[in-house]
Amino acid sequence: MSQIDIGLRLALKQIDEQHNLSFATYLQGLAEYTTAMDLKAGEQLDLPRGLYFVESGMIKAEADTSASLTRGRQKLFATPVMGRSTDSIGQLTARSATVGRGQAALKNAPGIMSQFSHTFRLARVGPGFVIGCISEFTGQEIPGTFICMMESRVHYLPFETIEELEISKPTLIMHLYKLLAHLGARRQELTIGQLSTLRSIMSSSAPSKPISRKAMAHLSENFQP
Questions:
Q1: CA angle at residue 186 from 184 to 189, to 5 degrees?
Q2: What separation, in Å, do the N-terminal and C-terminal C-alpha atoms of the chain show?
Q3: Which residues contact 84 (CB under 8 A, 6 or more apart)?
Q4: CA-angle at 189, arms to 188 and 190, nearest 5°
Q5: SS3 for 154?
Q6: Tens digit of pLDDT for each residue in 67-115?
Q7: Rounded (5°) CA angle 18-23-132
């Protein structure tokens, strides 16, 4: 195994191979600024803001349906504040005393919270994936919860380090941002394709009456090659 095939270098090479890119050579200099994290199966990632290059393993990303004011547990105390049916969530002051007290009371009653909250899987990520791209460009926390499905290894590049490298090594960071832009564009392209498929499914007309077994058997007989 060559030097480029270990650690962060391996993670970068897998990104290139999976997405048909050629950034690994330009980004090898990031290795001295990253920290390797070995994770056990079932372990949840504590994700301070930054980038996480997946070298090995498999990690699932989950989201909580109650992670907004319009759904789940927060609806319990946000809805009473909205007195009219025409009120919108945009008119609600999320940090008001009323909403704050409701949230505090709910946090002290985990049994109630569990009745109105559940998670769903957003994605599974493995080698060739970078966690934290959205956070890097939006300045927000990394969305969702990441849990290892097997033993995994990631390489963590803190956001503060990226800011420092923008000044000290701008060419290196330029290549990093180009890589993230490529990955973001690919992900957007896939999302648009998935939404197109979902729209086709939702807009297609269903049969007015289920086809009987007898009719299906008749069709099979007539359309046999």
A1: 110
A2: 52
A3: none
A4: 90
A5: strand
A6: 544 444 344 444 444 444 444 444 444 445 555 565 566 556 555 555 5
A7: 70
